[in-house]
Amino acid sequence: MVELRDLIVVGAGPAGSHLAQEASEQGLDVLMLERSEEIGRPLACSGHVSPDIWGFVDSRESLLQNSIREARFHVEGSSYRFYQEEPVSYVMDRVGFDKRKAEMAQESGAELLMGEEVVSVDERDDCVEVSVASGETYSSKVLAGCDGASSKVRSEAGLEEPSRFYQGLLCFVDVQDSSDNVDVHLNVPEFFGWRIPRGENIEYGVAVPPGESPSEWLDKVLDRHGVERSETFNTCAGGIPVDPPDSVTTDRIFLVGDAAAQTKPFTGGGILYGMRCAETASRYIDPENPDPAGYEKEWRDELGREIGLGKLIERFYLLPGFLQKPVLRLFSGSIGVHMDRPSSLFSRAQLRAMTSSGIKKIRSRFRS
Ligand SMILES: Cc1cc2nc3c(=O)[nH]c(=O)nc-3n(C[C@H](O)[C@H](O)[C@H](O)COP(=O)(O)OP(=O)(O)OC[C@H]3O[C@@H](n4cnc5c(N)ncnc54)[C@H](O)[C@@H]3O)c2cc1C
User: Fold this and answer.
1) How far is CA 25 from CA 4, 19, 107, 108, 205, in A?
2) For residue 355, how far is its CA from the centre of ligand 1 (angstroms)?
3) pTM for this model (two decimals)
């Protein structure tokens, strides 16, 4: 007879591990199923995150690779600097982060089974049964699909796909660089390319829409930085879902993280949004009385406005360079924004920063 668990979490990425941790702390009997043989691998992420990350993990010193205070945006030969005194973001060891989060989930009481790929899902009136590739079957009162961009749980549950996917591709160059600035290339079609100094090495990457060749665009970004493809290593790729569908739940199935496209539409970043939604989901996963409608309402109330504003910024990437340039010029200089909250672009802190950098720009123009 198959043991009936309170909650099965499919996928031990940031969203899955955080949900398992929260649910276990609330006393639920949680089983995590992860298809990979090693947590965090294969890697397909920059691990470039806002300072909020340190509220979710307890080993900052070992995970921190670099602190970022400045972003340089490049459009058709012009560059615009955005900076602040305090770190605006951090570069972390993403594999190490996933590993520590999975440990934290287990320390809270969740059981983790590795090498278990979920291949089918059968939702019944009182439980959900999942089968894995090895032929084993597991059963729970609630199932959480935290299995990433191309979620098997999503397709098995008959839930709608996110409306857009970008293709991400990144690689590394063996040059030490602890500078505090990232480069963002807006000439890449519809999305962007980047350079991120990671302390021990430098990362270059691109995210482009379907139909474009990420590899060709990555070569162009490398070229702009004078790097040959032969100098790069660990090239890795992944899908980036944006724009969540109208529903990410059934009666007993909850999608969380990339599976639900809970990402920032203007960067594709989903580590923090996914974990915030995991926290929300944990409050509505009562095994005796799951409340998918409550989860849908609360996570959309919390993130809907930021995702909506993020979509506006995403559209900005589609504009021709001659329209992008004046906007970048207007916002450039000292900034007071939070990278997970596009609404902070219109905050008092940002207004203050724009006013003081505007005064500096005028003064330097008069001096020269
Ligand atoms: C190139 C690139 C760069 C990125 N850079 C950033 C960044 O700098 N900052 C940021 O915030 N975000 C970034 N992202 C996005 C970020 O990686 C995702 O938003 C984040 O990983 C989502 O977490 P998750 O837990 O929802 O899913 P994932 O991290 O994808 O975890 C899903 C887990 O489920 C497992 N799994 C999948 N299918 C099954 C199955 N059938 N059965 C069992 N297990 C399964 C997988 O092995 C995996 O461990 C980037 C993405 C890409 C592609």
Assistant:
1) 19, 10, 9, 6, 37
2) 38
3) 0.94
